[in-house]
Structure formats: C-alpha cells, structure tokens
Write a structure and sequence with these properties.
The complex is a heterodimer of chains A (about 270) and B (about 70). Chain A is of the alpha/beta class and about 270 residues long. Chain A has helices at about 5-10, 35-45, 65-70, 85-100, 120-135, 145-155, 175-185, 200-210, 220, 225-245; strands spanning about 10-15, 15-20, 25, 45-55, 75-80, 105-110, 140-145, 160-165, 190-195, 215. Chain A has a five-stranded parallel sheet. A three-stranded parallel sheet of chain A has the order 6-7-8, with helices on one face. The radius of gyration of chain A is 20 Å and the shape is globular. Chain A starts with a helix and ends in a 21-residue tail after the last helix. The mean pLDDT of chain A is about 95. In chain B, about 10% of the residues lie in helices and about 45% in strands. Chain B has one helix at about 25-30; strands spanning about 5-10, 10-15, 20, 40, 45, 55, 60-70. Classes of the chains: A alpha/beta (about 270), B mainly beta (about 70). Chains A and B meet through strand 4 and helix 4 of A and strand 7 of B.
Chain lengths: ~270, ~70
C-alpha cells in the first residue's frame, strides 16, 4: 500500500535529477510571455522545453525574452531540436543550447522525418542520440511508439524515452495504449508520453497506463483558457498517477457483487 | 583609413568599419550585451569564456542563437 508519506516521496528521477511534478510543459504558442509564465505556474511544472533559434539582431535592446520570464534557476530547461530533420542538425543545435545555458546538459532530442506529420525519423534519432551521449549530454528522446526502437534508445544510454501518444499538435489523444504499455513494461528508464495529448482525460489515461510523466504544449497553449487548462492538466496527471499506484479494480462484464449489503433488506 | 570587413550574421551580410574585431566588440556593436545567446563561427561554437580574445575576421559566418518558446 502506498501511504501518504510514500506518496510525498513519489519523485520522478531523470538522469539523477529529482522532480516532484510529472507534467512537463512546452513554452510555444502562448499569446505572450506573461501568459506562458502564468500557465506554467498553474501547472506546477518544473521542466520546461524551449526551442533554439536565431536571435533577432538589431531589435530593441530592452525587449524582453522568454528567459526573463522563466529564469533558468527556477526551472529545469529542456532545450529541444524542433525543426531538425537530420542527426547533424540536431547535434549542432544541442551543442549551441549547452553553450547558451552555461553547460546545462539535459536535452530533448527530436529528429523529424516529415514536415506534414512531424513524425519522428527514428534512424536519424538513434544516430544523433549515440553522438550526443558520447558528447556528455543527458538525452531525453522523442520517438515513435515502436517498442523495439524505444528499447534501442534506452540501450544506447538515453535517460528518458518519450514516445508520442499521437502526432505533434494533433490533440488526438492516445492512439495506441497497447504499444505504450509494452514500452512501459520493457524499459527501466522513465517513459514520458510526448505529443498528442489533447485534454485532461488523455493525460490521466497516460498516467494510468504507468507512464512516468507527460510532456505537452498545444493542449494547454491553445485552450480557450490556457491557465485553467494548465491547472486541469496538473490535476489529471496527479489523479492518473495516484490511480496507477492505487491499482484499479478488475473489469467485469457484469457484476454479481453489489456495493450495498444483500442482507437486511426490508420485507 | 579603415578597410571594412563583411561578415554573415544569421544569414545576413553586415559590414563593419574594422579589419577584424573580437567577439566582445561584436557583441557591443550588435547591442547584445545584456542578452543571453550562443555564437557559432564557421560551424564551430565560440565559448563565452573566449569572447575577449576570439578574433572575428572578414568573411566569417556567424550564427547567433537564443532560447524561444517551443514544445
């Protein structure tokens, strides 16, 4: 039985780093930085993903940037390789990210295969992961829900495997819970569902399957009220996690076991 | 008399009235002093610790990047 004390210790450990929140948040698509910050605060997330892009040269010197709203000492940054279609581009991007973030080496690797679907290219992903791990990075890796590839990524040393629930930005929810279950059963590193979650119940289902966490962006950022949705996702992740730990009842087509006593009925 | 230098920054050619300059000088010229960024020169990362001595020369190609919102 998991008591309250143990629940409080139910930490997510990624590459030796401890986290209390199992919700990881992307910082794209918000109306402005203020809304980004408010949503993240509401979600109680500790890990935030960022993209690496060319700096605007000649912009207003006092113009604020994302980093002003999300100080790196308050959050764990997870620089990503969004937009990279080859291992080389992804490796180059993350080396720049490490320099940008003063040696911070926890990264999200994603190598895409197709601009229409944003489906991952697992061949390039495996290549890039091997090089980055050799170069000293702690690699959290976005991948398909193929259990064999997920295991290979673990075997070469990735510190978290992040299979998609459905396509990036689609909000289609968890399309193949069976594959996710195989991945969860097979791996020992944390499995974090990344991409495709559309609403709070999707996040809860992912956690009930036994995922260690969920990474999402669009579901929160493009909700009518992103801040309220961030709170909903926090609760869904917690509910799903506790439900998984508590262990659900077994399903029966019908039950001859009513919840109320069968004796003592009035005659 | 200065001979100008041309360098490519984030895909755009910029001209400066020097023969060469240090990375530190360039950062002041580009008004990036208070910003957080990383620089790659001709495909190689330029560590922040070397900005004072690192020379940027005519014809160099720079990528200057920062963190932006993304998922």
């Amino acid at each position: 039985m998991v008591d309250k004390f143990e629940m409080n210790k139910d930490e997510l450990i990624i590459a030796g780093r401890l986290f209390r929140s199992r919700l990881l948040i992307g910082t794209g698509k918000y109306r402005d930085f203020k809304e980004t910050r408010a949503a993240i605060d509401q979600s109680a997330s500790e890990i935030v993903t960022v993209a690496i892009r060319r700096t605007n040269i000649g912009q207003n010197e006092n113009e604020q940037s994302l980093i002003d709203f999300l100080p790196p000492n308050e959050f764990t940054y997870l620089p990503n390789t969004a937009g990279c279609y080859s291992a080389d581009d992804a490796i180059r991007t993350l080396h720049l990210a490490r320099e940008l973030l003063d040696g911070h080496n926890l990264v999200k690797l994603e190598v895409l295969g197709d601009p229409k679907t944003l489906y991952p290219n697992v061949v390039e992903t495996l290549k890039a992961a091997a090089v980055l791990i050799k170069d000293g990075f702690d690699v959290m890796v976005y991948t398909s829900d193929d259990p064999i590839i997920a295991k290979q990524l673990e075997d070469i040393g990735c510190c978290a495997i992040m299979p998609l629930a459905s396509l990036i930005g689609s909000g289609m929810g968890i399309l193949n819970p069976w594959n996710l279950e195989i991945i969860i059963d097979t791996l020992s590193v944390p499995v974090i569902v990344d991409a495709g979650v559309g609403t709070a119940s999707d996040a809860a289902i992912a956690m009930e399957l036994g995922c260690d966490g969920v990474l999402m962006n669009t579901a929160i950022a493009t909700a009518r009220d992103p801040i309220m949705m961030a709170g909903a996702m926090k609760k869904a992740i917690e509910a799903g996690r506790e439900s998984f730990l508590a262990g659900r009842m077994s399903k029966k087509f019908y039950s001859a076991s009513p919840s109320s006593p069968v004796s003592g009925l009035i005659k | 008399m200065y001979s100008n230098m041309k360098i490519t920054i984030n895909g755009n050619i910029r001209e400066f009235g020097y023969e060469s300059m240090t990375a530190d000088q360039l950062i002041v010229e580009l008004k990036l002093t208070s910003k957080r960024f990383a620089i790659e020169r001709n495909g190689e990362i330029m560590p922040k610790s070397l900005f004072k001595q690192f020379k940027i020369n005519d014809g160099d190609c720079l990528e200057i990047v920062g963190a932006v919102g993304g998922g």
